[in-house]
Amino acid sequence: MNEERGHFGSKIGVILASAGSAVGLGNIWRFPTETGKNGGAAFILIYLFFVLILALPVMMSEFVIGRHSRTNTVEAYRKLAPRTPWVLVGLMGVLCGFLVLSFYSVVAGWTLDYTLLSLTGALSGATDYGASFDAFVTHPYRPVIFVLLFLLITHVIVAKGVESGIEKFSKLMMPLLLAIILLLVVLSVTMPNASEGLTFLLQPDFSKVTPKVVFSAMGQAFFSLSVGLGCLVTYSSYFKKDTPLASSALNVCVIDTLVAVLAGFIIFPTVFSVGMQPDAGPGLVFVTLPNVFNQAFSDVPWLGDIFSILFYLLLLLAALTSSISMHEISTAFIREKFNMSRSRAAWIVTGVCGVLGVCCSLSFGPWRDVQIFGMGFFDLFDFLTAKFFMPLGGIGICLFVGWKMKKQAVRDELTNGGTLRMPLLWVFLVLVRFVVPVFIGLVFVNELFGNVLF
Ligand code: PHE
Predict the structure, then answer these.
(1) What's the domain range around 295?
(2) H helices of 274-367, where?
(3) pTM here?
(4) Residue 454 in domain
(5) 395 inside domain
(6) With the CA atoms of 67, 383, 117 and 301 taken in that order, what torsion angle do they form, in degrees rounded to the nearest 10?
(7) How many Å lie between the centroid of ligand 1 and the Cα of residue 20?
(8) Is residue 453 part of a domain?
(9) Is 19's C-beta closer than 6 angstroms to any atom of ligand 1?
(10) Mean pLDDT in each 10-residue stretch from start to end of the chain (454 residues)?
């Protein structure tokens, strides 16, 4: 079976597809949730610091490995370092990809349901959004149907291939997404009492910083930028020779951070505006917001409806441009490893994630009491991936580029064979060789033993 590997057609396609992977539920659902739980502005500052010194170098390293090897994330290590344990970094990434897509599809499934509810007008005018959200997520089969539906949509896009599936979809959706976000920000910050939410977002209170806050900020930086699991190794294996790696990575980080902060600007001013609490957890976006839309626009209900349709549609599109990238990690690996057609490989991934996704979904309802290490499937998968596998993968990826790959090969990739200037190459090398591994290690130690860092 010798299908062509495929590649991204244009430079802007590269940026939009990678930014599409990065921008997702992580920015619009997980970021506000974590910010709300971890005290606001101080958490955001630590997060921004981690994006710059940890996630950006890991992203550049993934780009270097992917484009240099031109193959999936497991084969990449086999090719560049034959018969060494480095391949474990790639295998951990594939495992992580399965786990992330499984729990991600649960929240994406909720989003799909809320998009349909808002389109049919069923969201407006309800009395108790908390109760209806609980009833929905604990229902024995309704959320499960939406998990599977979401996975099927992801499957269809991935099965279409790199250029006409992934790239085309991202190019179409990302500008639309940015437009919707900007519109929502304007609506949100002009609401009465929005200033309290802005203070929460902008005024840091460092007395709230605990090891847990630091650990969560690091997990959020990795999760939001899709780094540490080989997703961007896979994408960059489809980059062309003239794609500038460093500036593309920087662009993706800027876009992703902007969207996360803007999502904060949409959510917190509205939450405070109607006198609610920011630390509602995973339900923030599904309970607090419909309530907010409803109360804030009680005089002009149709405006509330439009606000909620736009919001959930935005969340759904963002989730899809990310889920296709998680799916592609394992699809590319299975397809190339077992010499299979793209479509068959994609079905295997969809099937496995379907089963795991259903387990995660049920952990909110009928399987609430099934606990591993004191967590249900959903929480366990979220914890294991964002806070554990991804930062650990980040260490492996940076050490590989910093110590194992030839310096000349790294330089060639970052300068496109000497045609681009890269005056800060030495900074990059210091970061990947020392700073990233040591820092991630310290954050782990800090979480385990408390207050080593802050
Ligand atoms: N970065 C994505 C988001 O913010 C999530 C993601 C994680 C995507 C890992 C791919 C890989 O939603």
Answers:
(1) 2-448
(2) 289-296, 301-337, 342-362
(3) 0.93
(4) no
(5) yes
(6) -100
(7) 9
(8) no
(9) no
(10) 67 85 93 91 96 98 97 97 97 97 97 94 81 92 97 94 77 81 86 88 90 92 97 94 95 95 90 81 80 79 85 89 95 96 96 98 94 93 93 98 97 96 94 97 83 56
